[in-house]
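Training component of the fellowship. As part of building independent skills, the fellow (R.M.) carried out the full modelling exercise for a liganded target. The chosen ligand was nicotinamide-adenine-dinucleotide. The inputs are recorded below so that the supervisory panel can assess the work.
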Amino acid sequence: MQNRSLSGKTALVTGSTSGIGLGIAQALAAQGAHILFNGFGDAAAIDQLQKDTAQQYGVRTGYSGADMSKPAEIAQMMSEATEQFGGVDILINNAGIQHVAKVEDFPIERWDAVIAINLSSAFHTTRLALPIMQKNNWGRIINIASVHGLVGSSGKSAYVAAKHGLIGLTKVTALENAQTGITCNAICPGWVLTPLVQKQVDARAHDKSLTQEAAKRELLMEKQPSGEFVTPEQLGELAVFLCSPAASQVRGAAWNMDGGWAAQ
Ligand code: NAD
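Fellow's submitted model of the complex:
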């Protein structure tokens, strides 16, 4: 466990009990970063996840169950991060939800929830993490946007609006800290087979009477030219790169890893 690139750093990964956030948390832990997990799930499983990560990678772990739709709970999580770890060096804004409906049918409550969790939560974590990063003159903020931060798709108005907004927040945060050791970038994944996407596969299989495999294939081939899912492990390695000294001049980028989706 010698010479790991992120030894001594602390990473907060929102929405890291599942999917992409979990993959990124594990990749950062493998480089020696202490991990503060966040997200929903079974309490015993989350406890085990913390213990397994600490043991496997020799890092400290913690957990906050803060709801990313609630600014007061986000503030509480950031205070706990300062008390327990002395602050957050690497902030990964990853928590997100999806809802699919046409604009005229979109439930107002779902719109508000998607904007709060996928966009506003990143503003709150960022504004509270920056003062300590600025004091240390080092920080990495990585916003998990989406290829839907770059292009639209029917039925996803709230999600597409939130992810385009998140890329805007990324650019401004990068610019305001451009002459410091703090960088802010967005990662824009294409389809990744996580529980969030599995729900969309299930809906397609049900609506069109397709097998799971056929529904996955159809979903991919509509948008993602490679015909293959991006993996949480690949996204984790990109996050590790963005935390490295080699990426210190990558600032305000929206970096897609999408099997060619946005190249079309
Ligand atoms: P997921 O459903 O597997 O995981 C989402 C995580 O967010 C979970 O840990 C969940 O508990 C947490 N979460 C949800 N609501 C929360 C809340 N209110 N407060 C705190 N935590 C909350 O989803 P995923 O596919 O891993 O998505 C992670 C991020 O990646 C999201 O922002 C998503 O928009 C983005 N993304 C996913 C894909 C994809 O194809 N899966 C593609 C592009 C972008």
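The panel noted the following from the submitted structure. The first helix runs from residue 19 to 30. DSSP finds eight helices and seven strands in the chain.
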